[in-house]
Amino acid sequence: MERTTRLGRLFVTKSLDGIDRDANRSEYQLKRVLGPLQLTLFGIGAIIGAGIFATIGTAAAGDALRPGAGPALMISFMITALVCGFTALCYAEFASLVPIAGSAYTYAYATLGEVVAWVIGWDLIIEYAVGNIAVAISWANYFKTFLKGFGVLVPDWLSMDYRTAGRIVDAAGVHTVLRDAPHVLGVPIVFNLLAMLIVFFITVILIWGIRESARFNAIMVGIKIVVLTFFIVVGARWVRPENWTPFAPNGWSGISAGAAIVFFAYIGFDAVSTAAEETRNPKRDLPIGIIASLIICTIFYVIVSLIFTGLISFDALRAQLSTEQAEPLTMALEHASSSLGWAVGIVAFGSVIAHTAVLFIFQLGQPRIFFSMARDGLLPAVFTKVHPRFRTPWISTILTGLFVAGFAAIASIDEMVDLTNIGTLFAFILVCAGIIVLRRQEPLRPRPFRVPGGLRWALGLYAVLAVVICFLPLTLLSKAILLPVLALLFYLVRNHIFPTLGMISCLYLIYYLPPTSWLRFAAWLNVGFVIYAGYGVQHSRLSAGEKLNSPDHQAWSARVGLWLLLIGTGLLFLTHGLDVWLTAAKNSSGTVTVKAGLASLLRANAWKDTSGFLIAPLLVNALVLCPIIIRHCVKTGCSLRSDKSSIGTMVLALLFVLLTALYLIWVFC
Q1: In sequence order, what are the residues at sequence separation of 6 or more whose Cβ sits closer than 8 angstroms to the Cβ of residue 189?
Q2: How far apart are CA 568 and CA 570, in angstroms?
Q3: Structure pTM?
Q4: I want to staple 67 with a disulfide (CB 3.0 to 4.6 A). Which of 254, 412, 551, 565 is the partner?
Q5: Which of 369, 363, 424 is nearest to 100 (CA)?
Q6: Could you report the per-residue pLDDT of 572-597, keeping only the tens digit for each?
Q7: SS3 content of the chain, % helix, strand, coil (to 5)
Q8: At a CB cut-off of 8 Å and minimum separation 6, what does 609 contact?
C-alpha cells in the first residue's frame, strides 16, 4: 500500500495558491513592467518569422512527399489558425489562472502532477531552445544573402555546419568549402559564426532588462509589419488573377498538407505566457496578448498568401522552388517583374528582422521556464538567480545562450526542425488536457478568462464541421457513419469542446509528421528521464519534508528511476516499431496495408536498427540511469521496509544492463 502511495506522489499537483506564493517570494521577484500592447507585440514577434518567409513556398507547391495547396493556401492558413485557436484559448485560461513564468510546465504541475510537469518542461526545451537553434541557422543564411547585396561576402566556412559543407561539391566533385576552409592538423575548420553572434547579441539584450527587451522587440515587430505591408501593397499591383486558377490543384489533400506545413508558422503565441511574472496585470493582459497576436498574424498570413499565389502561378512556383525555396516571397517578386529588384532587397531585410524577433522571443522564454523548474527543485538552484540590478534571470539566460549558440555553430537545421515540430504539438496536447482536469478539480475557482463551451458552442461547431464533411470526397456511406459518430462525440464533450478539439487536431498533425521524428522525440524524453531520476526526484520541493538520504527516500527514488527506465525504453521500441510499420504500409496499397505492416514487424532484421536515436538513449539508460538506480538501492542500507524491494529493483537494473549489451551485440555483429 505504501509503495502505491509513494509512487502516486509523482502525480501529486501543486496547488494554484502554492504556486502563486512561490512566485511572490522576494528572492524570485521579477520586474513587472509589461502591458497588453507589449505582450501582443511579443506574440507577433514570436509568430511571424521563419514560417511565413520560408515555408510558404513549400506549402503552396508541395514537395516529393506532400502535395501543395496552390492558391488555396489561404484556406490552409485559416484551418491552421483554427487549430491553433483551440490551444490558444486553453493557454489564455491557464495564463489568467496561473500567471507564472513557466508556461505549460507550470500549468501541468498544477493539474497533471510532477512527473508530467517534468516531461512538459523538458519538452518545452525542444520548442524554445532547440527550435531557436534552427532559427539561428536560418537567420545566418538570410543575413549572409542580405550582406551580399552590399558587396560584403562572408566565407562559406564561417556560415554553415560541417555536414552541410561536406555536401557542397563543384563539377569536378571537389568539396569546395572544405578545401577553402583553414585547416588545423589537417582538419578543416567549419562553423556558423553568424549564428553564434546573433545569439550572443540577443542574450546580452535580454540580460540588460525586460523593459529594454520589450522596446527592442517593439522596434523589430514594427519593422516586420511594415515590410509585410510593403510586400502586400507592392505585390498587389502585379497580381495576375489567372494565377489563382486552378484554385486547389491537389484538392483537399493538398489543402490539408499545406495546413500541416504552415502550422509551424504559428508556433510562438504560447511564448507570451512565459512573461507572466513581468506583466503588470497578468490575469487580464495575458489572454489579450495571446489571442490578439494570433488574430493579427492570421490576417497578415491570409493576405500575404493571397498576394503570393497571385504573383506566381502554381506550375511556375513548382518549377522554381527547388533552387529558391529559402526565400519564396522575394522569388515571387522577381518572377512578377525584373524591375522589382529594389523591393526584393527590402523584403530580404524584413526576413532578417523577422528571424531576429523570433530568436529574441524564444531566448526570452526558455530561461524563464528553467527559472520555474529550478524554483520547484527539479533543476539546480543556479537557474533561479535573479540579477540584483536588472531583475532578470541572468544565469539561466547566459546558459541558454551558450547552449543555443554552441549547437547553432555546428548543427544541421533538418533534425532540429523535426524535433521542434513534435515537441510543440505534444506540449499543446497537455495544455488542452490540463484545462479539462482543472475544470473537474477546481470548478468553483474564479476564472478571469474562461474557454467557452456548452451545448450551443458544440452545436455550432458541429454544424460547421458537418458542412465541411459534406463537401469532402468521401463515399455516401462514410459520411452517413461519420456524421452521427461526430454528433455523439460533440455532445459528450460539449462542456470541454474546445480543449477536446485542440487535442484531436494536434494528434492529427502528429500522425502526419515523419515517423523518424517520433523516435527522436522518444530519445529526447529518455535523456530527460535520466536527469529527473538523477536530480529532480532527490531535490523536488515535494520531498522537502523528508530526509533526502533516508533509506525510504532512497528506495523510492530507485523505484521511480526503474519505472522511468522501463517507460523510456518502451517508448523507444514503440516509436521504432511504428516507423517500421508505417514504412511498410506506405509501400503497399489497398487491403494488404495492415498485413504488410505486421509482416515487417515480425521480421528480425526490422529490429536491428543502428540509428543513433535508438542506440544512444539505450546506452545512456544502461550506463547512466541504471547506475543511478543501483546507487539509490545501495544507499537504502538494511532498512526492513525498503530492503526487499530495493534488492528487486537492483536486480532488474542489472538485468537491463545485460539485456542492452546482448541487444547491441546482436545488432552490430
Answers
A1: 157, 181, 182, 183
A2: 5
A3: 0.81
A4: 254
A5: 369
A6: 999 888 888 877 765 544 444 666 66
A7: 80, 0, 20
A8: 576, 615, 667
